[in-house]
Amino acid sequence: MSSSNDVTVSAAADLAALAGDWTLDPAQSTVEFTGRHFLFLPVTGSVPVRSGHAGIDADGSLTRLDATVGVAGFDTGNPQRDGKVRGPAFLDADRFPVLRYTGERVAPGTPSVLSGVLTVKEREVPLDFAVDEVAPAGGRVVVRATAEVDRHACGVGAMRAMVGPRLALRVRAVFVRTP
């Protein structure tokens, strides 16, 4: 993400036009993850984005973010594994159908850091996202961010010997102007 110190005047004006409230476009947004099976084999997958809102200030930085993803759509391409992860031993999709992230503090830098809380099965866990990009895209705003989450801290501790504790998250969030 460009900081306001290294943008041209026209780019600064473009960033200022982003200021305000934005609504997440779930169909255009993605949350992908990579974890480890048997602690060394990579497993990749995705979780569908359901809803969200963001605030952006005049220098093009996120000021807040609230988003949910649907647990029932957890997908690694392996139906048997996905069913187990959606089940009561892991995410318990029937009782807890969404994961929610609420970010409210942004630390400037390259990349900037959005600090917030991830809620998994009613457990709140601090989680920081590195915000790699906030960019205008034809009347929309695209935000790209990454984070690493400890599933055990989130209360998802099943199969500790077979599934690694950490998941690398990659987010591409597309927002439209909130009316």
Task: Throw out a few tags for this protein.
eight-stranded antiparallel β-barrel; mainly beta; disordered N terminus; 179 residues; single chain
Describe the structure.
This protein is mainly beta and 179 residues long. The protein has 2 helices and 10 strands. It has an 8-stranded antiparallel barrel. The protein is elongated and about 50 Å long. The two termini are 26 Å apart. Mean pLDDT is 87; it is low at 1-10.
Major sheet strand order? 1-4-5-6-7-8-9-10
What structural category characterises the helix and strand content?
mainly beta
Radius of gyration: 17 Å
Beta-strand share of residues? over 45%
- Shape category: elongated
Number of helices: 2
Mean pLDDT: 87
Quick recap of the structure?
The protein is mainly beta and 179 residues long. Helices cover 9% and strands 52% of the residues.
Write the layout of secondary structure elements.
Blueprint: H1 9-16, E1 20-24, E2 30-37, E3 41-47, E4 49-56, E5 62-70, H2 79-86, E6 98-107, E7 112-120, E8 123-136, E9 140-150, E10 166-177
Antiparallel strand pairs: 1-4, 1-10, 2-3, 2-10, 4-5, 5-6, 6-7, 7-8, 8-9, 9-10
